[in-house]
Specification:
There is one protein chain. This protein folds into two domains: 156 residues, 2-Layer Sandwich (Fructose-1,6-Bisphosphatase, Chain A, domain 1); 142 residues, D-Maltodextrin-Binding Protein, domain 2 (3-Layer(aba) Sandwich), CATH 3.40.190. The chain is 30% helix and 27% strand. The chain contains nine helices and 14 strands. Strands 1, 2, 3, 4, 11, 12, 13 and 14 form an eight-stranded mixed sheet that branches. Strands 7-6-8-5-9-10 form a six-stranded mixed sheet, with helices on both faces. It starts with a helix and ends with a strand.
């Protein structure tokens, strides 16, 4: 797969981030999301590749752009599957809060799991703790094993988890074990990647979050050498049926990292929209805007952090 595609894809997330960041704090999350989707789609169609959106903004009859199954790119070049979240943490951005990003994952045709639009129980760790997790084990056992892998005391292990009523018992168990907790309102992709970034201060992300976001997270972890496990948690019968139609017959199946993002030609790109643990947000200047992005490729293990200055008058 052409390595230049990764840099083309980060230009897609940059365009989406700049476009939707104008809606920061306006309270209009639908307008913010539409701005990100429109900019992302427009930029995709300048790139020479034969792309299909495997995780997008919903079904064809419900999403005008970047719906699951939509063809993108010029149609020339490698056949690539794309998983996108044009604006993760839409509500956060609309309310002027942190942790919003524009993000995508890409891989060869068939390399990314086609996940239904429901939830997944997830656990992710960085490279040093890879191989130490078991989503079917207890919270106590997992944190103990992660601490051992990281050569840390349990009291120094930091767990990131969504602040949701469904996690009340899990949070209680983490506290009983004695680990530290960092609660977030939204943003499981950034949270899932954070354990791979030593400066983040996060050692593990766990809990129930979006299944589509889990696939995108897995792509990043694949590039960074991290580890992840997930189990589907359909919240409505229609999503159970959707999973069956996608070929997922066992709803108790544990999806490992390679089940979610398979192969060596996985790519990941993200641009910050509002400041978060992974990326700084868009900053507008007298000449245009400054963006902060990350782009990575599993094939080479290369991770590029990019600060770009965009001159609007050119």
């Amino acid at each position: 797969m052409d390595r230049n595609l990764a840099l083309e894809f980060v230009r897609v997330t940059e365009a989406a981030a700049i476009s939707c960041s104008h809606w920061m704090g306006t309270g209009d999350k639908n307008a913010a999301d539409k701005a990100a989707v429109d900019a992302m789609r427009s930029r995709f169609n300048y790139i020479d590749f034969d792309g299909i959106v495997v995780i997008g903004e919903g079904e064809k009859d419900k999403a005008p752009m970047l719906y699951t199954g939509e063809k993108i790119g010029t149609g020339k070049g490698p056949k690539i599957d794309i998983a996108i979240d044009p604006l993760e943490c839409t509500s956060n951005l609309a309310n002027g809060k942190p942790n919003a990003i524009s993000v995508l994952a890409a891989g060869e045709r068939g390399s990314l799991l086609k996940a239904p639009g429901t939830y997944m129980d997830q656990i992710s760790v960085g490279k040093k703790a890879a191989g130490s997790i078991d989503i079917n084990a207890s919270i106590k056992e997992n944190i103990k094993n992660i601490a051992s892998a990281l050569n840390k005391d349990i009291k120094d292990v930091t767990v990131m988890i969504l602040d949701r009523p469904r996690h009340a018992e899990v949070i209680k168990q983490i506290r009983q074990v004695g680990a530290r907790i960092r609660l977030i309102e939204h943003g499981t992709i950034s949270a899932g990647i954070a354990p791979c970034i030593e400066e983040s201060g996060i050692d593990v992300m766990l809990g129930i979050g979006g299944a589509p976001e889990a696939v995108i997270t897995a792509a990043a972890l694949k590039c960074l050498g991290g580890d992840m496990q997930a189990v589907l948690k359909p919240h409505e019968e229609k999503y159970r049926q959707q999973a069956f139609k996608m070929g997922i017959k066992d709803l108790d199946r544990v999806f490992h990292l390679n089940d979610l993002a398979n192969g060596h030609n996985i790519m990941f790109a993200a641009t910050g929209v509002s400041d978060g643990p992974l990326l700084k947000g868009v900053r507008f200047t007298s000449f245009g805007a400054v963006t902060h992005s990350v782009v990575m490729r599993a094939a080479s293990g290369t991770v590029r952090w990019i600060e770009a200055r965009h001159h609007f008058n050119r």
